[in-house]
Amino acid sequence: MKKLQLIAILLVLTIVSTSCKSESKKIDSTKEKSYIVEAKTTSINWTAYKTTSKTPVKGQFTKLNVLNAKKANNSIDALNGIKFSIPVSSLFTKDSIRDGKLKKFFFGVMDNTELLSGTIHMNNETSGTVDLTMNGISQVLPITYVVSDQMVTIEALMDLDNWKAQPAIESLNKVCEDLHKGDDGISKTWSEVKIDIATYLKYE
Questions:
Q1: Hey, where are the domains in the chain?
Q2: What is the CATH number of domain 35-203?
Q3: In this model, does residue 168 exceed pLDDT 60?
Q4: Average pLDDT in the 102-124 region?
Q5: Membrane-spanning regions, if any (predicted)?
Q6: Is 135 strand, coil or helix?
Q7: Measured between alpha carbons, how far is 133 from 142 in angstroms, rounded to an integer?
Q8: Concatenated DSSP letters of 46-67
Q9: Residue range 191-199: mean pLDDT, rounded
Q10: b/e per residue, 57-80, with b = 16+ CB within 10 A?
């Protein structure tokens, strides 16, 4: 009889122990993961335009500084409120001569533009704004975006006139006068720049 009681007690202890371990595993497996912005998995591309027929000139910035990355429950919250800076020295167009001209005769003409800086505001599921500072001027840049889990793509159309960049545009057009001429012989540098950003958020 005592043996049967001992066996019964051991069985109960085994069941309780197994149940506790199972519950512990369940709690661990349901622990929420977080999204976070990383500079190294973010690309910043831009398209400027020359000639009256609006010939595209593509480039990118190869360096990004994320100043206040934070963990969040979703991609939009991870990006919302992010402050960033972009060194103008990281400009890259696959043409070193063009890169030099853009840095010297475009950005070099502006005030306090070693860095482009801003703050991202994700207003809803598809659109937001960036408080962007360039040429010593802060303006609101509307953005649209598509979120696909960890991947977020952001688009914007920037009018450089809003940052009073016309002197910089004229400076660049002067040094690139012949290169910015189309079939009509007119040299033109547009104030419109398209921005395309892709960021793959860390998820852990």
A1: 1-31, 35-203
A2: 2.40.128.110
A3: yes
A4: 97
A5: none
A6: coil
A7: 14
A8: EEEEETTTTEEEEEEE---EES
A9: 98
A10: bebebeebebeebeebeebbebbb
